[in-house]
Amino acid sequence: TGSSGINAEYGDLTDQQKKTRVEWIIAELQDYEILPYNYVYDRDRLVIGDPEEISWFLWNLVQYDVRETWDITRQMIENESQMLNHSYSWLTPPNKADEGNGKTSYHHTHTHTHSQTKDF
């Protein structure tokens, strides 16, 4: 028999440990500007693998990928002659605000409803 969602990966963790891992993941994605700091989610629903919450999370990741791909493509077209002169990294540096203390902050708490406008 198989498990699904976070439980397949973290079956031996307590619910609080699973919630903490989700907060760490979201904070990391925010530090790398993949998710905005105003990204709202329901941590408990994400932990239990709620399909609507998972879809919302994945939709935000897809939006980032599409925007990033579009921006990179546009830059390459505009600067085609200089394209091979620079190295490329897919990851952006962590948020400068967290560099001073040498730590990443994982204390983001959000609530939301999915009826918000989701602009692209």
Written account of the structure:
The chain is mainly α and about 120 residues long. About 45% of the residues lie in helices and about 0% in strands. It has four helices and no strands. The protein has helices at about 5-10, 15-30, 45, 50-80. The longest helix is centred in the middle third of the chain and has 28 residues, at about 50-80. The N and C termini lie far apart (about 40 Å). The model is unreliable at about 100-120 (pLDDT under 50).
> What does the main sheet amount to?
none
Using only C-alpha atoms, the radius of gyration works out to 17 Å
Could you give the order of the helices and strands?
HHHH
The structure class reads: mainly alpha
Fraction in beta strands: under 5%
User: What distance separates the N and C termini?
Assistant: 39 Å
Helix content: 40-55%
> How many strand elements?
0
Task: Give the overall shape.
Answer: elongated
Number of helices: 4
Q: What number is the mean pLDDT?
A: 74
